[in-house]
Amino acid sequence: MPNVITVVTGTDTGVGKTVATAALAVRAGPGTIVVKPAQTGGGTDEPDCAVVQCLAACPTAEFVRLDDPLAPDTAARLRGVDIPPVHAHAARIRELAARHASVIVEGSGGLLVHLDTCGGTLADLATDLTGDHDVEVLVVTRVGLGTLNHTELTVNELRSRGIEPAGLVLGAVPERPGLAEQCNLTDLPRVTGVPVVAALPEGAGALAPARFRAQARSWFAGSPDLHGGRIAAGG
């Protein structure tokens, strides 16, 4: 049986995909590798793979690096650079899956952001991989106003391609949720029909790596912290 490939997408940029990916890598355990098909942006921000390596202490692979903080195809066109099509990324991911117990693929931005200059998206990549692997797709989402629309759109797009999302991951839950956040914690699974499988506390990515790894498993469904009504980083 081929090893499972987990594809992590988001409803938008900045929803907490990278920290969620690191938490998933901790939960998956030894033999896990995290893949970033396309990394954009330079400057003072650490690339996503470096953040994952630091927090989760797992190996990573970055296929394409583009300097400008834009969607991958936009960044490539701006610089006159060709980037591989998504089917080439899929082939490399299959090779990694043959050598690792678990492969976690982190997308760039939302589900339909173009990862190549031919219009290929993370949704296309996930569809390609489902042909010969067990693939689970997780959707990282916000809990504030606007999240219901964004999350439903993402879930519906996956379903239109024959992919049933494995779960929702709440990217940053405040310690004291306001009214909108409290309602959305209930409404997100209700309106999408997709269970919440993890809830990361706001500020989780700022934890010291050892503390992050010690706490990460408690953020997943079935843990006392997720079902106890209070989610907080630190402690």
Automatic annotation (TrEMBL):
Gene3D superfamilies in alphabetical order: P-loop containing nucleotide triphosphate hydrolases (3.40.50.300)
Keyword Protein transport: no
Binding site for Mg(2+): T18, D48, E106
Enzyme Commission code: 6.3.3.3
Molecular function, one GO term: dethiobiotin synthase activity
Subcellular location: Cytoplasm
UniProt-listed InterPro entries: DTB_synth_BioD, P-loop_NTPase
Residues holding substrate: T40
UniProt keyword list: ATP-binding, Biotin biosynthesis, Cytoplasm, Ligase, Magnesium, Metal-binding, Nucleotide-binding
Known pathway: Cofactor biosynthesis; biotin biosynthesis; biotin from 7,8-diaminononanoate: step 1/2
Amino-acid positions noted as binding ATP in the UniProt annotation, renumbered to this chain: G14, V15, G16, K17, T18, V19, D48, E106, G107, S108, G109, P201, E202, G203
Catalyzed reactions per annotation: (7R,8S)-7,8-diammoniononanoate + CO2 + ATP = (4R,5S)-dethiobiotin + ADP + phosphate + 3 H(+)
GO cellular component, one term: cytosol
Cofactor: Mg(2+)
Residues the record marks as active site: K36
A Pfam family hit: AAA_26
An individual GO BP term: biotin biosynthetic process
Keyword Ribonucleoprotein belongs to the record: no
Cross-referenced PANTHER family: DETHIOBIOTIN SYNTHETASE
Function recorded in the entry: Catalyzes a mechanistically unusual reaction, the ATP-dependent insertion of CO2 between the N7 and N8 nitrogen atoms of 7,8-diaminopelargonic acid (DAPA, also called 7,8-diammoniononanoate) to form a ureido ring.
Family: Belongs to the dethiobiotin synthetase family.
NCBIfam families linked to this entry: bioD
Assembly mode: Homodimer.
Name by which UniProt lists this protein: ATP-dependent dethiobiotin synthetase BioD
Protein's organism: Prauserella sediminis
